[in-house]
């Protein structure tokens, strides 16, 4: 058999063992300096995940290394996608808690043995080292990163905490404060931060990896050591004090009854933070318990819902140049996101002042997204203010993000006739107008569709790609691929009042106003929704969206849907007339002049049906859009609601929640609400098809 030469990003060349030698997911070779290279290359996957067989194969290789100790051992990945994305999430659903604990014990044993090897061990990381991938890296003496590498424990987003030694190896490496923050927030550390925190010992360009490995093997790279702070936490009292603070910080975002994993991690560290063996045993037991919680099952479901949206955004979009019409808040952020992700972009507006502001917005987004100086300069170079609309003629995609009236949009479309390049796509960012009606003025209705971004565009992942009656399939596909190429999650839906997301949200906000008319305080209403798990109460949400926009969407829906909706309150109309538009004007239902409201009220004495009055109409609307064929399936509706609105992720989405609660129970409750409060609560006829 011939040797196999592996190139890393076209630079480091490494002669590996014969292809097909029984190392399974790992390939190994000793180089001329007697350094043993272990290269993770999970069979049949573009991404390395850490599965049972990956660990089993690693076990066998470590045993060989123990028998024939090399001068140094290097672990790295063969995948261009990065080092490793953590444990294989798809395997979790088949595991019992006992099975999971057994597997974890075996995996811990392998990592402990790597840690105990008498030779220097070095992990070289390019791309992401997440979860169990990061834990493998932590078991090595040194971590060498190439630019663009990142390290993190996203387990909390799956309702879990690290399970393969992360809970004690990371605190030992960088100190408990930074380590716990990293594990509790799930945030990743990119090279600069990872270096300053002491996660990595060196950051080198790929071409210098071999030299850095040699230096580490000779002990010439200085390893970072945790400072005095970590020693202070050896005292139980100090840990208890810190743990109390961590719990109260966590409580603000993730209450224990909804997100138990963070609290399990804090408890574990508080109890055993000074005893590695107890941490190890406790980590395994706690991880296995968390796997079986509904929260974790639902959050793992959310991961796969996200993957299905990503899938819809794959493929070639054929879009190099984009022209955005309208440099308001939405247009500016759409332009910024597209420019950051490499599109050439022109941005037009009837006035010049918003164009300057849009460039400043783009610069701010670049900073928020931690772009390097060069990346930011390149992104801003790609974004060209274009008041005269010269970019229209070369645009593959024109996105209209102008005022939300049919007349304005019709006029813009009429002006475009004869100015667009052959084959260009025209999309509108309308949130409420009918795509069919807008298409009447489009130069080519077959190349016209809705591209509904959510505010703030730079932070909300979902985009509704709305096909009108004449939109060609390949146009919708191109738009979905465009969304994917700028880092967004597309939901391909059909034209309908409010599409999927606003159709579902409007009753939530309007019912809150009916409740206020009935005398309930906005704080009580918002608190009830927050306790259910919504990221924002309906009154705060209405203020955040803008009361003028909310009113407009509500009126559009009321005028075009057969289904009864809550009445639009006089208070809402009066506030809009008085210019109290919510967050953007500093005052709406809440006073925003001193920052965002944080409603928190005692629910004692609140009506028993308060939460159901807010939540069940959303479920009913989800069933309606499904029955009408607006969304493709129940999972797509759930994904759209979670990734557009942050709909209680730990419940797995509105329709998943309905099924878990029981369809008979939900429809009976809707009937009772309908009897008590009016036909707007009557169950949709589609419930029977949900199964
Ligand atoms: C005891 C230990 C516990 C743990 O380790 S728990 C797991 C912790 N890890 C995570 O939660 C990471 C989850 N993955 C991600 O966040 C993202 O993915 C990445 C940042 C790693 C990459 O994102 P992007 O570049 O956008 O690629 P993509 O389309 O999301 O993923 C490519 C393919 O890889 C699969 N995949 C990624 N991570 C995992 C995983 N951890 N388990 C199972 N599959 C995974 C996806 O599904 C997809 O697959 P397809 O190409 O077939 O659509």
UniProtKB/TrEMBL annotation:
Pathway(s) where this gene product acts: Lipid metabolism; fatty acid beta-oxidation
Alphabetically ordered keywords of this record: Fatty acid metabolism, Lipid degradation, Lipid metabolism, Lyase, Multifunctional enzyme, Oxidoreductase
Superkingdom as given in the UniProt entry: Bacteria
EC number annotated for this UniProt entry: 4.2.1.17
Membrane-crossing segments per the record: none
Domain named 3-hydroxyacyl-CoA dehydrogenase C-terminal: residues: 498-592
Boundaries of every 3-hydroxyacyl-CoA dehydrogenase NAD binding domain copy: 321-495
Family: In the central section; belongs to the 3-hydroxyacyl-CoA dehydrogenase family.
Protein name: enoyl-CoA hydratase
Species for this entry: Maritimibacter dapengensis
